[in-house]
């Protein structure tokens, strides 16, 4: 079964002093385009994290983030005394100039200002890293499951569109012989309108046969049938088939276009336009296939 490149996964890890949340989401892309937000405490493991994501997700525009929330009583944060005093002086000076009352609770205001609190990052030990790695895999598992569900919907859509093209192809057949007779009659009528014009009927028949052979679409129909069959076989063969399906859809389009250029018949051309519409919807969604 095919997979979509669209997905989302989230997992959390509860530790004695902090809560870690892993979020990962992906969209379609020709290759792996990974953007990772990793706190400094886990920076030493960034290459391992990127490698893990690349092996499991293969392709897609991937946004990965680790969020850390301190929950323990002990804190690694410290007050930056110099910055706090600078804020205090500036606020007091502005208060005097503008005639605005100073805050009733100085600390409540000052501690919320940027860079007043500084955090001392502590490197994760091996046990914490192992737990974090398991949580990352859990988030990736959920994203992959999401991709499979999206892939199932895409597969259903592709099957429906391919069957529609097959049906439209059969609707062309009744017009083929009718088209040949119309072309032949039109040419004869045009010749008969020319006064005192004589022509070699045997040569005319030969040229007519040659011309009608150029309008024959049996070869295109045969190749189109094979391409449609190959497309369905490919989506049943497993994931990682997005690029291959793109190539097959291009071949399908080539045969449909040739049939349209050879049709020389209004009803046939209308059917070809409907086939193109079905194929265009396939091409749009193939871009989302892993």
From TrEMBL:
Residues 2-155 form the Endoribonuclease YicC-like N-terminal domain. It comes from the Bacteria. InterPro entries: YicC-like_C, YicC-like_N, YicC/YloC-like. Residues 173-289 form the Endoribonuclease YicC-like C-terminal domain. Keywords: Endonuclease, Hydrolase, Nuclease. Its cofactor is a divalent metal cation. GO terms for molecular function: hydrolase activity; RNA endonuclease activity. Belongs to the YicC/YloC family. This is TIGR00255 family protein. It comes from Dysgonomonas macrotermitis. The lineage of its organism: Bacteria, Pseudomonadati, Bacteroidota, Bacteroidia, Bacteroidales.
């Amino acid at each position: 079964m095919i997979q979509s490149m669209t997905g989302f996964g989230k997992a959390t890890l509860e530790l004695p002093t902090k809560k870690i949340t892993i979020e990962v989401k992906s969209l379609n892309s020709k290759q792996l385009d990974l953007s990772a937000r990793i706190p400094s405490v886990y920076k030493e493991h960034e290459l391992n994290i990127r490698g893990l994501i690349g092996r499991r997700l293969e392709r897609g525009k991937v946004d990965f983030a680790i969020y850390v929330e301190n929950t323990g009583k002990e804190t690694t944060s410290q007050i930056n005394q110099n910055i706090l005093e600078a804020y205090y002086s500036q606020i007091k000076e502005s208060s005097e100039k503008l005639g605005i009352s100073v805050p009733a609770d100085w600390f409540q205001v000052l501690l919320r200002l940027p860079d007043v609190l500084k955090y001392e990052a502590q490197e994760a030990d091996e046990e914490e890293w192992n737990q974090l790695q398991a949580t990352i895999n859990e988030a990736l598992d959920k994203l992959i499951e999401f991709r499979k569900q999206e892939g199932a919907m895409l597969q259903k859509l592709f099957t429906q569109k391919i069957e529609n093209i097959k049906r439209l192809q059969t609707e062309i057949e009744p017009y083929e012989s009718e088209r040949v007779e119309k072309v032949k009659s039109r040419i004869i009528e045009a010749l008969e309108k020319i006064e005192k014009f004589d022509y070699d009927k045997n040569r005319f028949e030969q040229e007519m046969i040659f011309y009608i052979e150029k309008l024959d679409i049996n070869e295109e129909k045969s190749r189109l049938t094979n391409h449609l069959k190959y497309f369905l076989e490919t989506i049943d063969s497993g994931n990682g088939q997005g690029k291959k399906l793109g190539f097959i859809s291009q071949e399908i389009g080539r045969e449909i276009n040739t049939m349209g250029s050879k049709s020389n018949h209004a009803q046939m051309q209308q059917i070809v336009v409907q086939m193109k519409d079905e194929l265009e919807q396939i091409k749009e969604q193939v871009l989302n296939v892993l």
